[in-house]
Every structure is written in structure tokens, then in C-alpha cells.
Design a protein that fits this description.
52% helix, globular, two-stranded antiparallel sheet, alpha+beta, 7 helices
Length: 139
């Protein structure tokens, strides 16, 4: 996936989220610009395309044997609102319950910076393992 296309789509999504009032701070803006969502939903990106990954939509990532949803990458607008309300600052420590794809942990890591720490837990071992792999691949 071309890096320049990903950056362009991130800028477009950030603009939409700012226009909707979901992103209000420079810190959350920069986090969304820095963290490539496709690194956290690679199967969906390969199947649906990069443009689909950067829509302001939920990306379902895991279903049970009957097809019921078990895990997802949340709608970016909801994530932005939550991050704005949380008000993370560099150097803080954050505990996240529910690892999902790891995307939110990646955004949180950008917000708290190198001096901060993010711990993300999940009761589903496969979800936690996958989130850990996504975070490692995204750096």
C-alpha cells in the first residue's frame, strides 16, 4: 500500500473529524495523522481497499462461529471524541481495557509519547496477541 496514499487518506479523515467537531486538539489531530489504521486492520485493508479503511466507520475484525461480531476497530469519530475527553498528556500512564485491534492503543501511545506508557488488556488471548502484533508492525 503506497505510503503517500495512506497519508493523504489520513489527512482527509482528520479533516472530516475536525469538521464534525470530534477532533479539537492538535495532539489528537497529530496522533490520527501519525498512526496508520491499515496496520491494525491489514486483512480488511487487503480485502476492502485502503479507502474503505479510512472511512469514518467501524471495521469488524472478528466474529464467532455463528457470525456474531466479537471485535472491531471502532468508528474513528467515537475514538476521537473519547481521546479528546480523556485529555492524555505526554508522560502519562494509561490502562486500556479491551485491546481490539491495537489501533486505539497506538493513538494513545502517540498522545503519551516516549516518556508515557500504555497498557492494553483483553480477555480474549487471540485478540490480545493480534493487537500486540499490530502494534509491533506499526512501530
Amino acid at each position: 500500500m503506497p505510503r503517500s496514499r495512506s497519508k493523504e487518506l489520513r489527512r482527509r479523515l482528520v479533516s472530516e473529524l475536525e469538521n464534525a467537531g470530534a477532533i479539537r486538539s492538535a495532539a489528537v489531530r497529530e496522533a490520527f495523522l501519525a498512526v496508520p489504521r491499515e496496520a491494525f486492520v491489514p486483512e480488511a485493508a487487503a480485502e476492502r481497499g485502503l479507502e474503505a479503511i479510512y472511512r469514518d466507520e467501524v471495521v469488524l475484525t472478528k466474529r464467532d462461529g455463528r457470525g456474531a461480531p466479537l471485535s472491531s476497530s471502532s468508528q474513528p469519530q467515537i475514538m476521537a471524541i473519547m481521546l479528546e475527553l480523556l485529555g492524555c498528556e505526554p508522560g502519562q500512564r494509561v490502562l486500556e481495557i479491551g485491546a481490539g485491534t491495537g489501533y486505539n492503543a497506538g493513538l494513545l501511545a502517540e498522545l503519551v509519547g516516549e516518556r508515557g506508557r500504555v497498557v492494553s488488556l483483553d480477555i480474549d488471548r487471540d485478540t490480545a496477541t493480534t493487537a500486540r502484533a499490530h502494534l509491533a508492525s506499526a512501530g
